[in-house]
Design goal:
The complex is a heterotrimer of chains A (about 350), B (about 260) and C (about 80).
Chain A: E1 4-9, H1 10-20, E2 25-28, H2 35-47, E3 51-54, H3 58-70, E4 75-79, H4 81-96, E5 101-107, H5 124-129, E6 138-140, H6 145-162, E7 165-171, H7 172-176, E8 178-183, E9 210-212, H8 220-238, E10 241-244, E11 251-254, H9 258-272, E12 277-282, E13 284-286, H10 290-298, E14 302-306, H11 313-321, E15 327-330, H12 346-356
Parallel strand pairs in A: 2-3, 2-4, 4-5, 5-7, 6-7, 11-12, 11-14, 14-15
Antiparallel strand pairs in A: 1-8, 6-13, 10-12
Helix pairs in contact in A: 1-2, 1-6, 3-4, 9-12, 10-11
Chain B: E1 2-11, H1 33-46, E2 53-57, H2 65-68, E3 72-75, H3 81-91, E4 96-102, H4 103-107, H5 111-119, E5 125-130, H6 160-163, H7 169-173, E6 179-186, H8 190-208, E7 213-219, H9 223-226, H10 230-244, E8 248-252
Parallel strand pairs in B: 2-3, 2-4, 4-5, 5-7, 6-7
Antiparallel strand pairs in B: 6-8
Helix pairs in contact in B: 1-8, 3-5
Chain C: E1 4-8, H1 18-22, E2 28-35, E3 41-45, H2 56-59, E4 66-76
Antiparallel strand pairs in C: 1-4, 2-3
The chains are: A alpha/beta (about 350), B alpha/beta (about 260), C mainly beta (about 80).
Chain lengths: ~350, ~260, ~80
């Protein structure tokens, strides 16, 4: 089969992936740097008989996601950090009713209005720990446009397979940069039937379903046990990470998303200078690849966390490493300039590596 | 010629979802929510929509309607019931989708969702229940609390200076082009109960004919928080509530109603 | 004989008294001895011969506690 190869941005790749995953429904609200996703959906979904529903604000989009997910059709929203904050309530309710939904967070620098939508990695804590109610959801962080295209489709699969919210976490860099992708549908395997979907009981032998996002009638320990079992299965079967040139590394860089691409460049530069440096890249952020990171860290002498944030991802790295080796942090202060277009360059990472080795 | 006496059942218990988590219904003695629940069930059955309906309720006293009604439903998020319903309707346009909501859900926390859903002319129906307070949480002042009424957060009686004026949901949205039907009814007398059934049937008809957003508000009593007996509450509806919140249709674009 | 008959479910009845004032024939009362499931009085038909099976007590009972029956005279040949 001949597939089409297109040059597109990360945001557009999100749109293509949704279409190739058979998602016909997008509920969202524009926000920089995500608006291209909404614009893509507004162009492409109605052409295909799908639903582009622009809500009045992100909170409303997340409530639509809750309703849409319960119909059993594939549904998606996309937002950025300030909008994500407004969606946290709905995410908790979505978790309670096990609604399958996909959410894309195109991170931007915070807090508050931040830089109006430019680069940053300051959502790590809020996506991995920020929803009230004690439950986890699935989070995957691509580092290339190809991965965006695959992971968004994978997110739909995970959402349907486990009845959970699956989030794809990108950022300004990944959202806006362009690379080539091959347009195709990925087949990740069989999925369970959705006999719980809301569509009118006449279509289900007069058996109606009620989805209640509350625990007022009890069953509390059983509910949490069921959710733990679900997430344990996801942890066992769906955790992903990548290692790059770690075989004999004295120092392990830990980095995710766009910063892992930059760190990869730093690894290459370090190796060219004879320094034994490797990269550990978590791909799923929840479940966090704890045991793999511990294994890799134990083979090395130091870990350097590189993140474009004042220090959020580093907490999970420290927890995973369990003090076996020292963990250092190169954070947002490593940006090359003080303005909104500041970035952490590979040269800066190399400088830090040299000072540590 | 033989004479016989037969019996016909003129009123029976409406069909509820089984098994219910508890019985009787959770509403306080004399609360009109139960009467409104009967109204909804009878209208669904009489219009033949009970097999083809989805109910979205949210929080508060009306939240459990999703549990009581034996139709597809979801409940739990407090406020944006019409947003949740919009998504369901967009995905299943042939299904009758309605939201059941309280005063806060149309006039406070859910106001944004209520108005934006009306603006978008979503083909769903909002059934709101006005009991002049936030009942479940203990009777705090609500958007629909009439001026002068004492509640737990207006202990000296509601004053316009500082809290504004009572919220009239159906009247507010009636002028919007996307609204096909907006009305208010009550269930405090048998005649009003029957009239309210008619209002809801028209609202559902407006939805299924694809004419736009439809909204019906029903006045309910709240004996626990009004601090009145159930029977005194009926009088309060007649003498105070209906004066502040007039009954009737504020918008009706169904065929045959051009004059309304 | 009465033209109608009601059956009150004593578990569902919360003693609110709406049926007492709504009844078009004033034939329902709240009992003084029985305590219902909410610690409230239980309604009962105090003057059954007056019942005409109009049904309004059942419509307006918030707890669906009243089933109403109406007698129909049938002439068969």
């Amino acid at each position: 089969m001949v597939t089409e190869r297109v040059l597109c941005s990360g945001n557009e790749a999100v749109g293509w992936a949704a279409i190739y995953a058979g998602c016909q429904n997008f509920f969202g609200y524009p926000i920089t740097p995500q608006s291209e996703i909404a614009e893509f959906m507004a162009r492409e979904l109605p052409k295909r008989g799908g639903v582009y529903l622009q809500s009045a604000g992100e909170a409303e989009a997340s409530y639509m996601l809750f309703g849409g997910g319960l119909t059993g059709e594939r549904v998606m929203t996309a937002t950025s950090s300030p909008g994500l904050a407004l969606m946290q309530e709905a995410f908790s309710h979505i978790a309670m009713v096990d609604a399958p939904v996909v959410a894309v967070d195109v991170m931007r620098l915070g807090p508050g209005a931040g830089t109006g939508g430019q680069q940053g990695q300051t959502d790590y804590r809020v996506v991995t720990k920020g929803v009230f109610g004690g439950l986890n959801y699935f989070i995957i962080a691509p580092h290339s446009i190809e991965e965006v295209f695959e992971f968004v489709q994978f997110a739909f699969h995970i959402a349907d397979k486990y009845r959970i919210l699956a989030m794809v976490l990108t950022d300004f860099i990944i959202g806006r940069m362009s690379e080539f992708i091959e347009l195709k549908s990925f087949d990740f395997g069989p999925l369970p039937e959705k006999d719980w979907a809301l569509k009118g009981k006449a279509k289900k032998n007069n058996v109606s379903n009620c989805h209640f996002s509350g625990l007022v009638f009890g069953g509390i320990p059983a509910f949490f046990e069921r959710q733990q079992d679900k997430f344990n299965k996801i942890t066992e079967f769906e955790t992903r990470h990548e290692v790059y040139r770690t075989e004999d590394a004295d120092l392990l860089i830990a980095s995710y998303g766009s910063l892992s691409r930059i760190s990869r460049g730093a690894v290459n530069m370090a190796r060219a200078q004879g320094l034994k440096v490797g990269l550990f890249r978590p791909i799923t952020l929840r479940p966090f690849p704890k045991s793999s990171l511990l294994e890799e860290a134990s083979k090395t002498k130091k870990v350097l966390v590189v993140e474009d944030s004042p220090g959020e991802f580093v907490d999970d790295v420290e927890a995973a490493v369990k003090g076996r080796v020292p963990v250092h942090l190169l954070d947002i202060k490593a940006r090359h300039i003080a303005g909104p277009s500041g970035l952490i360059f590979p040269e800066r990472i190399l400088e830090e590596v040299r000072s540590l080795l | 010629m033989k004479e016989g006496i037969a019996e016909k059942q003129v009123c029976k218990r409406p069909t509820l979802r089984q098994p219910l988590p508890y019985w009787p219904l959770h509403h306080c003695p004399g609360c009109n929510h139960g009467i409104i629940l009967r109204l909804i069930i009878e209208v669904l059955e009489e219009t033949g929509h009970d097999g083809n309906a989805v109910c979205i309720s949210g929080g508060g006293c009306s939240a459990r309607f999703a549990l009581y009604l034996d139709i597809d439903s979801a409940t739990g998020i407090h406020g944006p019931n019409t947003a949740v319903a919009s998504a369901v309707k967009r995905i299943h346009p042939d299904v009758l989708v309605f939201a059941v909501q309280g005063d806060g859900e149309i006039g406070a926390i859910g106001l944004g969702s209520f108005v934006s859903t009306a603006m978008r002319a979503e083909k769903i129906t909002s059934i709101s229940i006005n009991n002049a307070c936030f009942g479940t949480t203990g009777g705090q002042m609500a958007p629909t609390t009439p001026l002068g009424m004492i509640t737990s957060t207006s202990p000296e009686g509601r004053e316009a200076e500082g809290t504004g004026f009572p919220f009239h949901g159906p009247e507010l949205i009636a002028p919007l082009p996307g609204v096909a039907y907006a009305a208010r009814g009550s269930v405090h007398t048998p005649a009003n109960f029957q009239r309210s059934k008619g209002l809801l049937k028209k609202a559902f008809q407006a939805q299924m004919e694809g004419l736009g957003f439809s909204a019906v508000e029903f006045i309910s009593t709240c004996p626990s928080n009004w601090k009145l007996s159930p029977v005194e509450c009926l009088k309060f509806v007649e003498e105070t509530m209906i004066k502040e919140f007039p009954l009737g249709e504020f918008k009706n674009i169904l065929k045959g109603n051009e004059a309304a | 004989m009465a033209k109608g008959r009601i059956v009150i479910d004593e578990v569902a009845c919360k003693g609110c008294g709406i049926c007492v004032v709504i009844c078009t024939r004033e034939c329902i009362s709240l009992g003084k001895e029985k305590i219902g499931s909410r610690g409230t009085p239980v309604a009962y038909i105090s003057e059954p011969e007056k019942c005409n099976g109009c049904g309004v007590c059942g419509w307006l009972c918030p707890d669906f506690a009243i089933d109403v029956y109406k007698s129909i005279e049938r002439r068969m040949s």
